[in-house]
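Q: I'm writing up a methods section and want to include an example of the input and output format. Could you take the sequence below and give the corresponding predicted structure tokens, formatted cleanly so I can copy it straight into the document?
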Amino acid sequence: MSIELNHTIVASRDKQAGARFLADVLGLPEPTSFGPFAVVELHNGVSLDFMDTADVPSQHYAFLIGEDEFDAVAARLRERGVATYADPGHRQPGHNTNDGGRGLYFDSPDGHNLEVLTRPYGSGGA
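A: Here is the clean output for your methods example:
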């Protein structure tokens, strides 16, 4: 059997709101419930299981998406008034063109540093 990531727990002050924000921005189905979690299922079978907690350390989550999805995500973020950045430190507004693709960073309502990118790092390009 190969080794694959199956799920990870995402700390949130409001698991339903955090999961809904991510699912909405990425254009994914409405989160489901499983035990104490609000679950966002990705297309590759990996799930992000949002859990309520008072302590929310900022984490980084990156999502590899297609070019069409990138345009849709960027539009959804603009519609919500969410700032986007070309770099993980949030110093340069907009998006980047690393490895011949496009990428952008944005904050979740809980302060997680989220990223969408159209080419994996090190895959080549300009």
